[in-house]
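call fold(seq) -> tokens
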Amino acid sequence: MSGLKYYLTLKNRISQTNQPSIRNQEHSLGLGYKLKFYFMKKLLIILFVLMSGVYGASAQHYCIIDSKYILDKMSDYKDAQTKLDNISKAWQDEIDKQMAEVDKMYKGYQAEKPMLSDDMRNKRQDEIVAVGLKENG
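ret:
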């Protein structure tokens, strides 16, 4: 029983001196330290982000290359571009010729439409569509 008696006397002395218990002191100190730790952690994260951004910005290098100038100096590029332009022009001429043919057929159809029967109209429409598809296909 002597251990229990000693404990009770210590408890009474602590409560008589109007000091908060050790447990309450630890609790209040712990909360303050937790807040300080929280804000320090936030501050360190912000500093890390800012410093990494500054370092990243200083590590970037820019270079401008005039690729048109370089390609113009290459004879193979000029030859390939000339061939490509010629092929493109030939295809465009062929397409223009076929479009003129379809346009001519359509204008003829529009002029004769009132005089044609339903079967003839459908037949002419199919012919125009077939020529148009032949152009695209």
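The helical segments are 2-16, 22-58, 67-73, 75-112, 118-136.
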